[in-house]
Recover the amino acids of this structure.
């Protein structure tokens, strides 16, 4: 079977931008992935870059957008839209790349394009005026203001999950029509491998969720100890059980963890949940509608943090995944 015949035939659009206040100066990038058939945004990304040039920030936005495409569908036909004439012309092969930093970033981008091509997809580039790149520009400005954004927006077709613009049924919806207990702000903590990292995890969680958040988690020894420390630091109580152990029979999604997550959705509130890698991925697969064959594709590390937000109407997003800067 040829690469072309393996491709999904799905179309995706990447809109990317980057900026630097000072050039070089305080820099950041923004990128999003859009379904061109519906206009719906599937992923939004923004990240500060410290001190960097405008061109480095533009290339960084491109890289983030291409990586997001590979997570969604590596065999898609991709149109990249940017208001950077330099990046578009260089990636299209019409302009030479003289600066070493940009040469390195362009090589990374080409490797990602090759990865998409090998999966049966394609990538082409289109320059657009700045006024037609406002969404990516707004994200890059958030990044330059010091804000990190990683939103995965749920919108799957009920039949094939390909993204028709019809919201998927969300976890925790009640058949009786009873109202939810309010929005859920869930911080998933992947159980660390050793107790030495627990103080750093506790400090990071306190910064993110503030006081009085509920704490739930696995009753495994280290997870239980960490749950107790978190509850003490947040001024709440910890509830540990086998529900969050991530050790149900079989492979892939742990339905016991998924059920526990859906019960949190029904109640709402701010919750910290400790579980293992399989447990984290079981929640994310429920939010994102991940197909079974892609269950293990998302990287998460011991001690990492992942944030999920679910609103009263059932819509959900992943604010960030695999955050590990607190462990450094």
């Amino acid at each position: 079977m040829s690469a072309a015949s393996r491709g999904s035939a799905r179309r995706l659009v990447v809109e990317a931008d980057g900026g630097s206040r000072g050039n070089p100066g305080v820099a950041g990038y923004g990128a999003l992935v859009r379904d061109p058939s519906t206009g719906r945004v599937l992923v939004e990304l923004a990240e500060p870059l410290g001190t960097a040039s405008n061109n480095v920030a533009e290339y960084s936005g491109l890289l983030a957008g291409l990586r997001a495409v590979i997570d969604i569908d590596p065999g898609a036909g991709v149109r990249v839209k940017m208001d950077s004439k330099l990046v578009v012309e260089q990636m299209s092969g019409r302009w030479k790349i003289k600066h070493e930093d940009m040469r390195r970033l362009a090589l990374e981008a080409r490797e990602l394009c090759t990865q998409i091509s090998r999966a049966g997809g394609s990538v082409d580039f289109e320059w657009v005026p700045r006024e037609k790149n406002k969404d990516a520009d707004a994200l890059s400005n958030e990044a330059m203001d010091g804000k990190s954004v990683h939103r995965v927006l749920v919108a799957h077709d009920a039949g094939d999950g390909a993204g028709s613009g019809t919201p998927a049924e969300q976890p925790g919806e009640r058949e009786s029509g009873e109202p939810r207990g309010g929005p859920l702000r869930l911080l998933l903590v992947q159980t660390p491998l050793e107790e030495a990292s627990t103080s750093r995890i506790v400090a990071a969680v306190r910064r993110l969720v503030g006081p009085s958040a509920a704490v739930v988690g696995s009753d495994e020894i280290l997870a239980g100890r960490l749950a107790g420390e978190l509850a003490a630091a947040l001024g709440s109580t910890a509830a540990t059980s086998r529900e969050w152990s991530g050790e149900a029979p079989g492979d892939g999604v742990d339905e016991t963890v998924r059920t526990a997550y859906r019960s949190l959705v029904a109640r709402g509130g701010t919750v910290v949940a400790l579980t293992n890698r399989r447990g984290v991925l079981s929640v994310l697969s429920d939010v994102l509608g991940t197909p079974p064959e892609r269950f293990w594709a998302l990287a998460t590390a011991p001690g990492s943090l992942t944030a999920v937000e679910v609103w009263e109407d059932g819509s959900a997003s992943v604010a960030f995944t695999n955050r590990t800067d607190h462990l450094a």
User: Anything to note?
Assistant: Residues 165 and 220 are 41 Å apart (CA to CA). The domain at 184-327 is CATH 3.40.50.1240 (Rossmann fold).
